[in-house]
Structures are given as structure tokens and as C-alpha cells.
Design goal:
Two copies of one chain form a homodimer. Chain A is of the alpha+beta class. The first copy, chain A, is built from eight helices and eight strands; from the N terminus they run H-H-H-E-E-H-H-H-E-E-H-E-E-E-H-E. The first copy, chain A, is globular. The structure holds manganese (II) ion (MN) (4 copies). Chain A binds a DNA duplex through helix 3.
Chain lengths: 238, 238
DNA sequence: ACCAGAAGTTAGGCAAGGCTAACTTTCTGC
DNA sequence: GCAGAAAGTTAGCCTTGCCTAACTTCTGGT
């Protein structure tokens, strides 16, 4: 046996206070964070329920519990806002999620349209130690396979400087930075067209009434429907 | 889009019928499997309760539910035995567990005394697809970091041909095949002595009344307590 | 053969989360 | 400014697991 102290479990990875919250609370916190975006409007019960696929009644009950746990402030009938503690919890889960997605893609070769579903489960079940081992293995990465920023170990996250592709004028463009990871079909479609985060993209033409948007990506032209273009984010110019 | 069929989700990894059971059922099935060993005595409620750290009352209730789900046969007051379905479920979890342990150790460099705890959680949360990616990455391995055999994809498991080190006579020995993974302290101790699965081991002397066992491992002598020796398994000779 | 203690089960609770149905509050269009 | 619609909440119920306390069954020693 070495001279190492007995039963002192390393004590390293203790940046965040290791609050143990139920998986439910973690999912709600993440959903609220993502719905809150940056406009600091409170988030409605219905929006949370929709995103999590539960009834408004279930969400209402759960939000009250989150309020008791100091994860949200709840004004009945008006909505919820994350407390700083709730935001930390959300960011912790987002860090787990994105690290896992990248790890699955990079280390295990899982296709980028399938990593999301797996990460959605695993994010709640990895230890802080495993989180750290994954981050180290990946070289403390800044972005996940869909271009989304990964919060730092201290849970700082880069603020979003992108605009939706659907909001660009003809002639506008930039780097295709990120895309929603929640629709595998969509990801496979983009992949099959060779459209991936990091590519330069430019709007060539737009049709009115939500018509397709013609873009060029690395030389090729594509006509993208508005729902798709809404989920693709491009670096803000200027 | 390629000519690949739409929405047919690959259909590969479907060897086992993908029964979804609650995490509780998975843990109970695994516990019963491991208590059952090979002596096909039925397993008592108390033994299950002990191993899972719940009260006998809780185990009793749960065993009844497992019986309803056809995972065990339950004779009240006499004990339970796994059904074939229950055994498949147990082996599935054991495969997950041991693949995850090896993966964490080999790919992420997690020390062998810490992989068990992490695997204990993750085994319930990886998809069949991820299981397969891990197995492939590791080259369809046969043993985990503690020397325990990993069930095949078809859930066949090699039967145990080892004896406890504590049961060997002086002069007996063989290959140190495997060691219980449930006590991190013990694993660290063995590791610090350079005693690892695969090493040749021989009993040099024994003291009566559960006294220490003197063994030689790759040239060095060690005195091991009986509780430790009971958890170390050595290849059966002859 | 009996009976005490060990082992197992039942009864009654609790906490998380989900549901539906019914009720309340807020918002909106006239 | 008010009615009806939309949004949110409450009430009552369910499932999964766990608990303690009380009861039942089994077993081993005399
Ligand atoms: Mn994702
Ligand atoms: Mn963390
Ligand atoms: Mn499997
Ligand atoms: Mn293990």
C-alpha cells in the first residue's frame, strides 16, 4: 500500500456542490432553460408540458415541487423562471448531454443523428468523475456534433451569436454553426447533402409565403424548406 | 437522400426480444442470478434483501411482482428461482455491466476499483446499439477487468471452472482468474501488491483457524487474510 | 411432538411522477 | 367591459419501490 491517505476519495472534482436531484427535476430544469432562451420572459406550464411530453396537469404539479426545491420561481398562472440554482442544474445536464454526444460520435463512431437519444438518457447517470474523464479524453471540447456549445467545467456557456438561416436576406450568409439535434430524419437529410456545421452557407434566393430557401453550400445549391431553415443557425455577420 | 428505406430503423441488433423491464426488476434478476450461483437451490427473500440493501418486506413485495412478470417462480416462504426469461434478463445486465467496466478501464483509463460502481448504474441505461458499439470497440472481449466472463451477445456465459483461493491446500495453485469487484479497498490493496488476474499464484503455507494464507505471486510472497482469499478465484487444476 | 426463534408475508404509509376530469384564472375579441 | 377560449391548477387516482410494524409459517432443538 502506498502512503496515500486512506478513504479520502480524491476530493478533486468538486467544483459544483454535487447536489443530487431526481432525474425528473433535471429534465424539467433543462427544458425550462432551453425554452427560456435569453428573452427573460417566464416560461408557461404548457410550454414545459409540451416539450417534455406530459400533460399540463403533471407539469403544474412538478413545477410546484421544483419551486419547493428552489430550482424555479413560480408565479401561479404566470409561469416559471429558473433560479440560479436551477440554471446551474440545467447547465450541468447540458454539459453532460453534449459531452456524451460528442464522445459517442468521436470515440464510438455513432452516427450524429442517433447520439441525441442516447445522451438524453445517459446525461442523468454519469458521475462527475466520468464526466471529467470524457472531457479529458476529448480534449475539453467546445462544441458537440451538432455545433452546440458545451458549457465549461465551471458551467460557463458561450452566448449565442447566431441567427436562424430562415431569417437571412438574399445575399446573406456565414458559417453554418449549429442545428437542432432533436430530429434524426433532418440530420440524416442534411448529412446526405453534405451540409454540416462548419460549412460556409449563403442565401441565393427566397420565395415568399414560407417557400423554399435556395442556398449554396461549398459550391452546391440546395432548396431548403422553411421549417428546416428555422432550425439551422448561421454565424451572425457584421 | 439515398435509396435507403425510410424509417426502417436498421433492424440489426434484435437478437434478444428487447423486453423493457423496470430498473428494479433488472437489479433483482441480477441479484438472484448471482445468489443462485449454480447449486440450484431456490434463493431466499432475505438473501435477496441483503444483497440489494432493502428490507425483507420490500424484497418480498418485489419478488411477487417479478413472479407476476414471469421473471421468477415464487413459492411463498420457500424462495424464488429465475425463470428462463428472468435468467436472460440477468445475463443481459451482466453483459452490460462487464462491458461497461472494461470500456471504462480500457478506453477512459478509469481505475479498476472504481469501474464497478459506475457500471452498476449505467448497465440499466445503455441501448442495445451502444452495447454493440462498445463490444465492437473492445473486440468482443471475453472478460472484464476483474477477470469475470462477459456473456456473449447471445447471452451464453462460460461456466465457472475456478475454486476459491481459500479452499486450496498448501502446494496448490494455478492462475489467479478473477476477484470480486464489489470492494474497492480490496482491489486497491491487490493492485498495490501487483496481484492481478492472470498472475500465477501458489499457496505456500496456511495457518489454522482462518489464519493468513501465504502465497507466492510472480516471485513475491504475500500473506492474505481468509476473507480476501475467499473472494479470489483460481483456475481449477487437473 | 412441540415450541421458540428465524424467515417470510401482509398491512398501511410515503414519495415521485404520471394520468383524467373538473375547476379557476387570465386573456382576447368584440 | 365582458363572454368565451385558452391556459393553469386542483382533486382524485395509479404505479413503482421503499419503509415499519404486526402477523404467519417454517424449522430445529429438546
Ligand atoms: Mn442533444
Ligand atoms: Mn459536472
Ligand atoms: Mn444486449
Ligand atoms: Mn462489477
Amino acid at each position: 500500500m502506498t502512503a496515500a491517505p486512506e478513504s479520502v476519495p480524491d476530493a478533486a472534482h468538486k467544483a459544483h456542490p454535487e447536489r443530487r436531484h431526481a432525474e425528473g427535476a433535471e429534465n424539467y430544469a433543462k427544458a425550462i432553460y432551453q425554452l427560456q432562451a435569453d428573452d427573460d420572459e417566464p416560461v408557461g406550464t404548457g410550454a414545459v408540458a409540451d416539450r417534455l411530453g406530459v400533460t399540463p396537469a403533471s407539469a403544474s404539479a412538478m413545477l410546484k415541487r421544483l419551486a419547493d426545491d428552489n430550482l424555479v420561481e413560480h408565479s401561479p398562472y404566470r409561469g416559471v423562471r429558473l433560479t440560479p440554482e436551477g440554471e446551474q442544474l440545467a447547465l450541468e445536464m447540458i454539459r453532460h448531454h453534449r459531452l456524451i454526444e460528442l464522445f459517442l460520435a468521436e470515440v464510438l463512431g455513432m452516427p450524429w443523428d442517433r447520439v441525441h437519444e442516447e445522451a438524453e438518457v445517459l446525461e442523468h447517470h454519469i458521475s462527475e468523475e466520468l464526466e471529467e474523464l470524457i472531457a479529458t479524453k476529448l480534449g475539453q471540447p467546445a462544441r458537440d456534433p451538432h455545433g452546440d456549445p458545451i458549457p465549461s467545467r465551471e458551467l460557463d456557456i458561450e452566448d449565442d451569436r447566431t441567427v436562424a438561416l430562415s431569417d437571412l436576406e438574399v445575399g446573406g450568409g456565414g458559417v453554418f454553426e449549429r442545428v437542432s439535434d432533436r430530429d434524426p430524419e433532418m440530420l440524416r437529410y442534411l448529412d446526405s447533402r453534405g451540409i454540416r456545421p462548419g460549412a460556409a452557407i449563403e442565401v441565393r434566393a427566397r420565395d415568399p409565403f414560407e417557400g423554399p430557401i435556395r442556398v449554396s453550400v461549398s459550391g452546391d445549391e440546395h432548396a431548403l424548406g422553411t421549417p428546416l431553415a428555422r432550425r439551422m443557425r448561421v454565424s451572425a455577420e457584421r
